[in-house]
Amino acid sequence: MTSLLCSKVIQPASLIVVFETLLSSAATTVDEEKGNPSWQPQADFYVICILSSLPWGGSELAEQVPDEIERVLVGIQAYLSIRKNSSTSGLNVFHNGEFESSLAEKDFVEDLLDRIQSLASNGWKLDSVPRPHLSFEAQLVAGKFHELRPIKCMEQPSPPSDHSRAYSGKQKHDALTRYPQRIRRLNIFPANKMEDVQPIDRFVVEEYLLDVLFFLNGCRKECASYMANLPVPFRYEYLMAETLFSQILLLPQPPFKTLYYTLVVMDLCKALPGAFPAVVAGAVRALFEKISDIDMESRTRLILWFSHHLSNFQFIWPWEEWAYVLDLPKWAPKRVFVQEVLQREVRLSYWDKIKQSIENASALEELLPAKAGQNFMYSLEEGKEKTEEQKLSAELSKKVKEKQTARDMMVWIDEMIHPVHGFEVTLSVVVQTLLDIGSKSFTHLVTVLERYGQVFAKLCPDSDKQVMLLSQVSTYWKDNVQMTAVAIDRMMGYRLVSNQAIVRWVFSPENVDQFHVSDQQWEILGNALNKTYNRISDLRKEITNITKNVLVAEKASANARVELEAAESKLSLVEGEPVLGDNPAKMKRLKSTVEKTGEAELSLRESLEAKEALLNRALSETEVLLLLLFQSFLGVLKERLPDSTKVRSVQDLKSIGAEDDNSSAMEVDTENGNPKKSCEIGEREQWCLSTLGYLTAFTRQYANEIWPHMEKLESEVFSGEDVHPLFLQAISSALQYPLQ
After folding, report:
1. Number of domains observed in the structure of the chain
2. Residue 650, domain member (yes or no)
3. Whole-prediction pTM value?
4. Residue 263 belongs to domain spanning
5. DSSP assignment of 350-389, as one string?
6. What is the pLDDT of residues 195-236, one digit of tens each?
7. Is the backbone peptide bond immediately before 66 cis, with ω within 30 degrees of 0?
8. CB < 8 Å & 24+ apart, contacts of 386-395
9. Claim to verify: residue 146 and residue 198 sit in the same structural domain
10. Alpha-carbon distance 393 to 434, whole Å?
11. Is residue 614 part of a domain?
12. Is the domain of 241 the same as that of 168?
């Protein structure tokens, strides 16, 4: 609309009315008495709409309606004086150890107003906005102005009447979800890399890049082409890289999947071969140096992006620059990052290829997963006598090759193995043997689970036994993280193991000690939660569609009944005599239609009831799952977090770790006998930081499902006297909700 003003299509007064309407709605929203301050993100969005349009027409407005635009800017300043500083520390990619940022820092709206005021004081002159209308001013002046109709702003929900904290927090979450901040700037590069770019020009170029990414998301090559050729008179490769990484790492979630940004970065590297690849490499190095301060969810996305990016460029990277991570302890964030990237690369290629790609830093082979993927306990060795378990395993394999049914196999297990050898040996033999048969490929695994899944279900009907089943799966695939995750995911898909069993297994002692040195357990936990909530989402979509079909069926049934009643009340002549009702053939057809539409409506209603029952059951199970998840986090953190009287913030935790560094981090590497290089903090503190980071990440990621159960979670998990403040801070920062 502001650009149309410049082209003499819209009257300046009409645009000012739009601005003032938005500003009035924003001011009302944040008013404690008249509005609903929980919906401040909506008010901020309206103000950002006004401010972000001014670079494109501020000079025309200042020339044609100077008093009015000044009144708008004063109104925005007044709005900022009554709104609360938008502290969203839980959405920061980088953190310096504190979950709460200082309120003295400027948020996005305050920063944008400063940039616009600076632009106004500079006479609204900027280099990044083209002004094509100036060449046609003589013709445009003769054109016809158009008046804008009054606009009506969307009304926010009413504030809770009972002043419920949880309900207010839920409203704030809904507002942030509906009106997310478009960008959270990452200052990856030194200031001198962009010293020629003025603050307002940086904002405009960011808007260009975000618009191109948004509108051309369906055609990535065209998207990259436009991004590489923006109409600005200065170089912006560093700014473009920062903007792209800000989207890849954006919290709580980026507008598009990481894959989209991977493809755009790849196409930009090909479109600008002399400039952009080096800038991307510089960004990766800078992020690597800050990896210990990066949010856990953002770190996982960076690992996924980087491994995929390298797979598109023959896995070429100067790994010798990072070879020093081998001198760091196994829990050091930099070492874990390199390890996870290499393991992801193996998934995207094959082991020998990745080993070849690190030949300039061959010592890093230590961080690659073991080449042999299976760990079959009952493999036969020549010259050795078969054990009883090996004989049973061989017999089971023979039955599979003979294509015996799952029922026959269960009878054999119940009669021949379980009574003699007990449950643990039975479970081990069955799981190890069937997984070995399905180990050749994903297809083999799926076939085994489909054909013999009921064997697992019969053996492990309850949560305790399912945890033992998961331990056996992990033991068999101990050297193949991907297959462990896939096997467990498939088992949950076939309902052979429950999500609660997976949570219990992840937080079992055998896994807890690995929380800070591997992402495997977190990946499996994330897959289980995703599958759980995807089921709920699918049920809600199905209920919505069936509800629409019910309404259509109701209308069709009602119309059929009306038509039948009209026909029944109609007088017609039969053999010269007046008879009530239409001709028999038509009546028969109408009655048949009424029956069919009634049956269709009844069938849809029954289907709707069944789906609603499934949804209610899933939601009740979700509450149990969330309670178990947070209680599990609380339990393991309580055992390892330092006393709350000594540690009340993450910075305190890091300080303790730094003091203990000499005793815990400077240990001797038992594998090669060399002293390891000092790490910033000790192992226990790094374990706490990693676990707290993932607690924040999961809470933020599943906030939509957590909020309906917040009151129960507060009463049963978050409110105990022995709950550590760091546990509460991790959840508070994720939900943007203060826990008492």
Report:
1. 3
2. yes
3. 0.89
4. 192-367
5. -HHHHHHHTGGGGGGGGGSPPS-----TT---TTSPPPHH
6. 778 899 999 999 999 999 999 998 999 999 999 999 999 999
7. no
8. 388/421, 389/421, 389/425, 389/428, 389/429, 392/416, 392/417, 392/421, 392/429, 393/429, 393/432, 393/433
9. no
10. 9
11. no
12. no
